[in-house]
C-alpha cells in the first residue's frame, strides 16, 4: 500500500462515518470525494464495505436497547412489533434495490450531475419540511405503527438514487407522517442496520473475486475510520437535531451540490 492510498482511505472512511447517519447522502459525498481525490484503491465495493464500520457504531451505541429487544422477543409483543416494523420498513427498498442494482451501480453512480441535482433538491425539501407545522403524533421510534413503518420504507426507496440520502428520505417520510424530529432520526438509525447489512452482503458476494490483498488492507483502514467517526455522529446527532432541526444539513447539501455542478461545468 502506498502512503497516498492510505491517506485517501482514511479520508473516505471519515466521510462515510460523518455522513452516513445525517441527511446529506454519504453515497454522494463518497462518490464526489473519490472523484476529487482520484482514489482507485480498495476495489469496486470499497464504498459499501466500509459502511459496516458505521453499522457497528450503531450497534455499539444502541447495544443495550437492542439486546433487550432480542431477549424479550419470545414474551413481549412490543418487542416483536418493533422488529417487525424495522423489517417492514426495510423490504420496499430491499426489493427495489435488488431489481435495479446493476443500473444504479453502472449508470447512476457515474452520473455526477444527477447526484449533485439530487443533493440540491433534497436540501430544498429538507428546508421546507423543517418549516412545516405538522402535528407530532409519534414520538418514540420504538413504537411506530406497522403502517407508518411501511410508508417510511417506501420513502426510503427514493434513496436508491445517489444523492437523495437514505437517512434524509426516511426522515422526510417520518416528518410528513407526524413523527417528531428526534424519533425520525432515531428510526433512520435502526432502519439503517438491515439496509446496510443487506447492501454489504450483496456487494461482498458480487465482488468476492475482485479484491486483492492491497484492497483488503485499504478497506480495513476505511472501515476503522468510518467506525470511529460514525460513533461520534451517532452519539451527538439526536441532541443536535433536537436543538437545531435539519436546516444546517439542508444548506450543506445545497452548497455541496452547487459546488459539484460548478466543478462538472468547469471540467466540461
UniProtKB/TrEMBL annotation:
Q: Which reaction does it catalyse?
A: di-trans,octa-cis-undecaprenyl diphosphate + H2O = di-trans,octa-cis-undecaprenyl phosphate + phosphate + H(+)
Q: Which UniProt keywords apply?
A: Antibiotic resistance, Cell membrane, Cell shape, Cell wall biogenesis/degradation, Hydrolase, Membrane, Peptidoglycan synthesis, Transmembrane, Transmembrane helix
Task: Tell me where in or outside the cell this protein is found.
Answer: Cell membrane
GO cellular component labels: plasma membrane
Give an example GO molecular function.
undecaprenyl-diphosphatase activity
What is its membrane topology?
Answer: Multi-pass membrane protein
Give the EC number(s) listed in the UniProt record.
Answer: 3.6.1.27
Show the InterPro entries listed in the entry. Answer: UppP
* Superkingdom classification of source: Bacteria
Which parts pass through the membrane? 45-62, 82-100, 107-129, 141-164, 184-205, 217-238, 250-267
Pfam families for this protein: BacA (PF02673)
User: What EC class does the entry list?
Assistant: hydrolase
Q: Which GO terms describe its biological process?
A: cell wall organization; peptidoglycan biosynthetic process; regulation of cell shape; response to antibiotic
Q: Please give the family membership noted in the entry.
A: Belongs to the UppP family.
Q: Any miscellaneous information on file?
A: Bacitracin is thought to be involved in the inhibition of peptidoglycan synthesis by sequestering undecaprenyl diphosphate, thereby reducing the pool of lipid carrier available.
Role noted for this protein: Catalyzes the dephosphorylation of undecaprenyl diphosphate (UPP). Confers resistance to bacitracin.
Q: Which HAMAP family match?
A: Undec_diphosphatase
| Protein name, per record | Undecaprenyl-diphosphatase
**What organism does this protein naturally occur in?**
Faunimonas pinastri
**What taxonomic classification does the UniProt entry list for its organism?**
Bacteria, Pseudomonadati, Pseudomonadota, Alphaproteobacteria, Hyphomicrobiales
Name the gene behind this protein: uppP
